[in-house]
Amino acid sequence: MLPVRGRDGRATRAARILGTRTAWTPVGDGEFFCPGCGGDRNYQRLTGRRRLTLLGVPVLPRGTAGPVVECAACAHHFGPEVLDHPTTRRFSAMLRDAVHTVALAVLAAGGTGSRTALETAAAAVRAAGFADCTEDQLAALVEALAADTGRYFEQPCAAGLTIELHEALDPLAPHLAPAGRESLLLQAARIALADGPYTPAERDALATVGAALTICSDDVTRLLAAARTPS
């Protein structure tokens, strides 16, 4: 083989003589959703120190590196912001709790006198992951909320339920696609419509759900109208 000549050859020889090496130190671990693997994986959080190398031997410090998140499965490095994304298990739990809270809010706004509304709500909650949820359990929870807050069903969405809706939906909304956020609002609308047209209190509760899901008011109005149209 002929020797490498020219500028590229000189650069290659220089890289073999001088280089940079990073020594990584673990500073934490846990489980995260790995974008590279596309699933939940274990990770190590690493910080590093760079050193200039001469013929492969570290000789001079060159500052710090990281922190980075290293996947235990694929060994790829990611920025720390990757930990802001919930794991698949955590996301499923967040969605389950959100559906449950939304169902309670809509039932509380319309009352629990309609068996059809209770059945619709219980079916949605079971599908979200609470497999043992029953209509009677939801009715009892709504009655307990009413007793605890002294709230009448006909009144607008109470402050306590508004806070609970935001606590359940605010962390979830950034991780839902627009279609997913709309689907959750439509599901709430179907519960409200199960026993007839929207009441003012139900509209207020659904508007609160839409706001917590970062759906603009015009789109909330459009979706609530669409929910009334048989598919």
From TrEMBL:
SUPFAM superfamilies registered for this protein in UniProt: TerB-like
InterPro entries in UniProt: DjlA_N, TerB-like
CDD domains, A to Z: terB_like
Gene3D superfamilies in the record: TerB-like
Name of the protein in question: TerB family tellurite resistance protein
Organism: Streptomyces bangladeshensis
Co-chaperone DjlA N-terminal domain location: 122-222
Pfam family, one: TerB
Transmembrane segments: none
